């Protein structure tokens, strides 16, 4: 008698609605690994290789770029003997540290005001923060230079000769950068103030604490992570900013690390050692700042929200006119002065004529639209680069966000790290790295020497904007239930169909926002275009800066105004098109029906 045959083991299939479903987009063997591996390769080329090339140049200048290179580890210590290196490091640290304190306090204070009381004009603080956030730093810096220079708007329009020595000084530049970069702290703190548990404040008030004591001992300590993160973001952004020193180069000598790195590569002969060493110090300082920030957050717990937390609805202010007046003053400082000065200069025959009717003219705008206008040519080229980079970055960011949130790939840590590094490393450092990588003689032998070609502008723009595209889509991805993907996978739907018909319709709003944000940042990317644009390929930021350095302020500012208007129109069109596509039903294809 034969032994009884055991029944085959039951195949366990994940329940699409069960709690055991893990977040994973991909089900077919190998698909997750292939996508993750492809992203690792792309991020290594876009971010890893350029950063490594820059750091290597600090100890082995000229490596791979010539026959006379040598390993010189002691080069990093020569900063103690070189006045320019010391001045650049000192000025950058002074500017970044001062803006971190002042800009962080300003941004957090305005966010606290915005979400504590309601008053007319409160929403204008949000609009101002976003306007500054998407505005190019060198355009804002040029506006401040036009306002504060001895021959500028302040001296010849309002007769304030004392403004020039006040603003064009280390302390004045700290204030300018604080007024320009405070939105990072404002948005970080505002995000933490949207939800609140009032029981803590009520308990303190019942104990006899005054409103000021409650603010100082309850609210601010609980907001410490948001306030600290905003201040660190200001520090990181100011430390790597290239726009301010570039705009100041004709009016005030204030060398910083980014501008000295730029000068080292643009001068003849090229100083690989200077660019590598200063880039090394810049990256190390940024890394230390981020590590300290993470350690501070891990020392204490800040999770205070409970089931009684609710969305904050600020009560009406007792004296609303005070806060409305304060808001008007802030708008005048942060937007009215820089943008208003640029607009006035673009409509004036000269900066000496002030606001007199005889000084009004449209000739600068006519020159911008005239035949052979280099600004118009540069705007067209920059728009083409920005559109290409926006499409590529949005798609790449979509895939990165999908892997980070809905897969269990072992490469997630590297992918997340590469995105974080790209967010922290200044654009000028990445641009220099692209020169070191893609100007290699070995690549020229196989036709891959991309330096001097417009395609390198697109790659640099993608690398710089990728962290923004990922983070703008990451929140929407995290809200998508895992059961959606499990159900599609059990039906045999392929990877491309699942991404297109399941994921994209749900997160499309965030994807459109990412596209518009990348388009704006790439269009006015001064660092990359200054370092990487071929001589025969005119770009808008370089042309505006060149005309500004030549003293043609009216023409340069008119070009900036026209370009900004075109950019807003293109971004609005892209947003409207995206919303229209969202309303269009997604047709089922053959694979999904199978």
Please tell me about this protein's structure.
- The chain has helices spanning 31-57, 83-114, 122-134, 137-148, 153-157, 163-167, 170-181, 183-192, 199-206, 211-222, 224-239, 243-248, 257-266, 272-299, 320-346, 363-368, 374-406, 412-424, 427-438, 441-445, 455-478, 482-490, 495-523, 526-532, 540-549, 553-583, 590-593, and strands spanning 195-196, 310-311.
- The chain is an all-alpha fold and 594 residues long.
- The chain folds into two domains: 26-57 and 361-594, MetI-like (MetI-like fold, Orthogonal Bundle); 90-303 and 311-346, MetI-like (MetI-like fold).
- It has a two-stranded antiparallel sheet.
- Helix 11 (224-239) runs antiparallel to helix 14 (272-299) and helix 17 crosses helix 26.
- The chain is globular, with a radius of gyration of 27 Å.
- The protein starts with 30 loop residues before the first helix and ends with a helix.
Short overview:
The protein is an all-alpha fold. It has helices spanning 31-57, 83-114, 122-134, 137-148, 153-157, 163-167, 170-181, 183-192, 199-206, 211-222, 224-239, 243-248, 257-266, 272-299, 320-346, 363-368, 374-406, 412-424, 427-438, 441-445, 455-478, 482-490, 495-523, 526-532, 540-549, 553-583, 590-593, and strands at residues 195-196, 310-311. Residues 1-29, 302-309 and 585-594 have low confidence and may be disordered.
CATH superfamily of the largest domain: MetI-like
Query: How many β-strands, per DSSP?
Result: 2
Tally of DSSP helical segments:
27
Give the helix proportion (percent range): 55-70%
Q: Key features?
A:
594 residues, 2 domains, mainly alpha, MetI-like fold
